Each structure stands twice: as C-alpha cells, then as structure tokens.
Amino acid sequence: MANGESGSPPTLIGSVRRALRLLEAVGAHADGAPAKQLAREAGLPLATTYHLLRTLAHEGYLQRENGLFVVGAAAEAIGRAGGLRRQRVQISQALAVAGRELGAAVYFAVYREGEVEVVAVSDDPGRPSVEEWVDFRSTAHAHAIGQCLLAQLDEAARREHLSRYPVQSTTPFSVRSEGELLYRLDTVRRCQVAYERQEYALGTVCSAIPVQVGAAAATLAVSLPVSELHRLRSVTDRLRIKAEAALTTLAFSISI
C-alpha cells in the first residue's frame, strides 16, 4: 500500500525541507540577510546554505543584492497567487451572505485586459446563478454585468470591445444593434444601474451597479427568476446599500 495508507510515516525529501527553511529565513528579513546569518537561523551548515542559496537564486526564488539575499520574483509570484486565492474566497463568502439576505444570486465582476471577468458568484442551490450558456465575455452587450462594465469604459475602449464582440441577439429580448446598445449604455451611466430582462437568458432578470475599484471598471450584480421581476428594483436598492457598507471594501482587495 502507499505511504499513509499503511500507517508508515511519509517519505520526506530532506533537501526540499532545507530549502524551504532557508526561504522562510530570507522571508523574515525585508531588507535581506547574508548567507552566514541565514545559515544560523535555518540551522544549516554554511556549505549547504551556499549551495541552496545559489540554486534558489538561479531559479528566481531568491535574489542577491549587495551581498544580501532577498525574496525573488518567483517566490513573490507564489505569494501573490495564494493571497489572490484568499481574497477571492473572502469575496465569495461575502457574496454568499448578501445572496441569502437578498434572496438572489449575487455576482462580482471586473473588466480586465479587454475582457469581462466574473470574479466570484454566490453559491446557493436555492438561488442558483445564471448558467453561462453563451460565453459572458462575448455577450457583454446582452447581460446586466456586461452593460454595466461597458458603460464605465471610455468611448475608445468601448468601441474596441464591440469591434471584437459585435452586438448579436442571444434571446428575442436582446438589444439588436450597436446603436440601441449605445443608447442603453448612456442610460446606465446616468442612472448608475443596468437592468436586464431576459436579454441573456430566458426566465431570468438581472441588475448591476458600478463599484469603485481604483481605476478599473467593476460591478456588483444580482439575478432573479423572471417570476420575481417585481422584486428586482428593491433588491437592487438593497444591494447598493450593502455595497456602500461592506462589499466595496472587499472588492478593493481583488488584484486588478
């Protein structure tokens, strides 16, 4: 049987463990530390420390500056990935709470590098999110999330997006031309909310409000069954209050 299933201790790679201890020692010094100090703090022989430091520096996990070793770009990338994952978990949890209180599916999305990106969605089987039956990125004109994001772009960025993703109907209720969409986006900018009724998916109504995340276009949105259209405006008003009180703070933690 494999280790763990038989109750025997797992096989550990000593050199990997020593390298990790050394990385931890370097990480404890924001301004860097010399090899001899790192060897003492990691409890390693100096010769072993030099070998590991050279290897880690070669691979980009450490960098040597004026005789001191500091964390390198490769290690920083790992840290950013872990931090981003924690931030996304945080905002997903916040959306879940908001969804339960609003009785709706809740979404957080940004416009990143020319694309619509849904960062997080509340996860409640009782209030399922809209199924992405047509790529959200190519149908920004047809759903409240995309309309809210497009409305926040400048004219050049908006026209560049539409040159890649021309307006086309996804349901009988979708906007049918670029002119109709631009008129809609002007209304969204003035009212600071996008309402969409079965334009992306039959049986669903949605709304989206802009939120401030630095200079990036971002939005919080909700969706409801079309049978609950009468609730959409009140739910949107409550979402706006929640965004101002709490969710925007979490939105700032997302790396844009």
What's this model, at a glance?
By secondary structure, this protein is an alpha+beta fold.
Describe the structure.
The protein has helices spanning 14-27, 35-42, 46-58, 73-102, 144-152, 155-164, 178-191, 232-251, and strands spanning 62-65, 68-71, 105-112, 115-121, 194-197, 204-213, 216-225. α2 (35-42) crosses α3 and α4 (73-102) runs antiparallel to α8 (232-251). By secondary structure, the chain is α+β, with helices and mostly antiparallel strands. The chain has a 5-stranded antiparallel β-sheet, with helices on both faces. Strands 1-2 form a two-stranded antiparallel sheet. It is elongated. The protein has 8 helices and 7 strands; from the N terminus they run αααββαββαααβββα. 46% of the residues lie in helices and 18% in strands. The mean pLDDT is 86.
